[in-house]
Structure formats: structure tokens, C-alpha cells
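name: query_chain
kind: protein
chains: 1
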Amino acid sequence: MAAAAAHRLLFLLAISLAAVASTRAHNITAILDGYSEYSLYNSYLSQTKVCDEINSRSTVTSLVLTNGAMSSLVSNLSLADVKNALRLLTLLDYYDPKKLHSLHGGSELTTTLYQTTGDASGDMGHVNITNLRGGKVGFASAQPGAKFQATYTKSVKEEPYNLSVLEVSDPITFPGLFSSPSAASTNLTALLEKAVCKRFAALIASSGVIKTYQAAMDKGLTLFAPNDDAFHAKGLPDLSKLTAADLVTLLEYHALPQYAPKASLKTMKGGIPTLASTGNGKYDLSVVAKGDDVSMDTGMDKSRVASTLLDDTPVAVHTVDSVLLPRELFGGAPSPAPAGESAADTPTSAPAPEVSSAPAPSPKHDKKKKKPKAKSHSPPAADSPDMAPADAPGPVGDGEPSDKDQDKNGATAVGMSLVAMVLASVAALVGASLL
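structure:
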């Protein structure tokens, strides 16, 4: 009985190690650094921050274009349109050469990153993969009757079943793909008012801070706009008592001097300078990311990034659920009480106590024990495709660089979750063997 249990323990431990190895993080730009023929494609991955979206996925296939094909694509396109084209070339499933040539029924419709943006109409965020005559594999948009503009050329990199990099002949497009709103043509106050951020829009206009935002747009700007409900939140300090200079500082605190779409925010660590930052960490923000949820942390409270109003490199405009209160301005003021808690739970400046002859209560009775934070669990990994790859060809060319050290929220978390599940099973078997 004990010997059988021991064998099962070793078997489960071997599975856990294999699971961790198969879910390791990847870095698409580091991989493509070793291939000069994709340098333009790789550059636009970084400029548009699509690389962060790819790296956050545990299972993904990237369809890459040579410099010649990429040059034809980007001519006369805004960065926002290029970003959508790159998203449509990113498949949210694993495809290697063997799977491409053995599709069930000879054709398959697969989801892309573009579908996840919410900008795709109907199935237009999907790509049709079809086996064509002569052994070719074609890629087309999901539009009925769409021509197969792109064909599979060769495999560049395979990491079963997490990442596959395939070269294709041409981009995949459809009418309406290149119609993203442009920051240059956007009326910022009108955009905010339409998104029910009218109070914030009025403040940046009356204070003149909108001119600061507009001046920063050329080099990079990320704006966090509180909705109107945020200005009526319980416990919010009276902003009308701020001096004109402090109000400007507060509004500048709601913007970063860099382009940071939501996927890029997830990768940011430590203090992040804002337009109000003065150095030494003053007026910096930090990010708290759990799965797809992203919150901005001021050191006094957290505010959830609710939606994205504009994503046009190098400008991103997000809405947030509460006003961002820097501790440098409001360190002595009450913070907004979290939902479900009474105002009494929020620290406030208490008045001086009256002199009394009664003995003072021991301070240790007033101390509250901190509740341990609940551990978050990553979602289980997606099922691996039924089709196993053929013997994967080695990387094309020598001297391919190793992946850079970088936190990837998706793949690494999934691996650790699998290990935890296996260890729980091991503990159960050990207990059973001792009975």
C-alpha cells in the first residue's frame, strides 16, 4: 500500500514539473529580436503595446509579416489602425504547421485579439483559416466571401502549446478595420462628457489643465477620468476648499506622461510618475492588477480602471471609479469609505478629549487585529488542442536570444496554480497511505 502510494506521489510530482515547464512565460519582442526580416513588425509591436497583450496570453499564435509586407501595411495608417491590424494577426489559440494542414473539415474560424477589444462588429474579430489547393493554408477575415489575402509561409518559433510564431505573406484586412478614432481629431472634453465624466471635463477646462494634457499628447499621455458618481462618493474631501494651485496638482495627478493601455498597466511595477510628480516618489501612482481587473493605487485608496474611452498611440483615456487622492494633498483628510463600510471605520481627526478624573482605558483594547488578505487564484489553463504538433523544427537561424526576464501575469500564474493543485493531491495521498 505504502509503495503504491509512493509511486503515485512521484508520478504526480513529475506531472507538476511538466505543467510548469509548459506554461512558462514568453516575450514576443525578445523572440523577434533575433530576426532582422521582422524588425519593422517588431518595432510596431512595441510602439502600439500589442506586445504586452500577446505576452499576457498563455496560449497565442502570432502571424508575423516581413519588412516588405509591413511597410505596405503601415503606409498612410495611424498607429491606432496599425494596432488593430496587429491584433487581427494575433490568434488566441495554438497553431503549428501540422495543425494548420489537418484542420477538421479543412477550415476553421478562430478568435483574435481584435475580438477582445469590443470594437469588432459581429464575427469580424475572427479569422477564417482554410486549407487551399496545392497544400497552401490561407487566412481571411470572417466577412462572407472574403478573399484569402494571406497565406502561411513558414514557422518561425514554436513553444507547444503556448506560443507559435508563423510568417504569413500579407496582412488580413476588411472594410471598416481602419476607422479607429484618432487622438489628433478628438475633442477631449466632448469625449469625457459623452462618457458621463462631465464634472472632470469641467474642472480640466476651467483650471486650464486641458492645455497641459494637449501639450503632452504628442509624446505620450494616459488619462484617468473619474466618472460623475465619483465626485459624489461618501467621504470624498471637499475639493472646493483646494487652492487653485492644489486643484491643478490634483488634476495633473490623474495623468501619466506616457502611453499606457490597460494591458501595459498590468505589467507596471513600483511607483509610476504622473504629470504632477516632483521627484523622490512624490505624486506617483502604482498599479494593482488581479486577472483582468486593474486598479490605480494612490497610497490612500484604490480606484478601478472601468473602461477605455480612447486608445490611439500615444494617447490612452481610461475612466476610473473614484477620484485619485494623492497623500501629499490629502494625507490628513478622510479617505472615501469603501463600499459596505461605515464612516466610523474611516480614520478621522478626532477632537481633543475633555479632561476627566476617570482612568484612561488601556490602548491595547482599542487595537484591531488585521484580517489576513484572501489569496487570489488564477484561472485554470485553457484546454490544450487535441492536435499535437509534429516534431517541432528548430529555430530558424542561429544566435536566437533567450527570453528576457519579465513578469507575465498569465502563463506563470497558471503554472503555479497547477502546482498547488498537484501538491493538494499529494497531501491527500500521503494521508491515505498513513491510514
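note: The longest helix spans residues 409-434.
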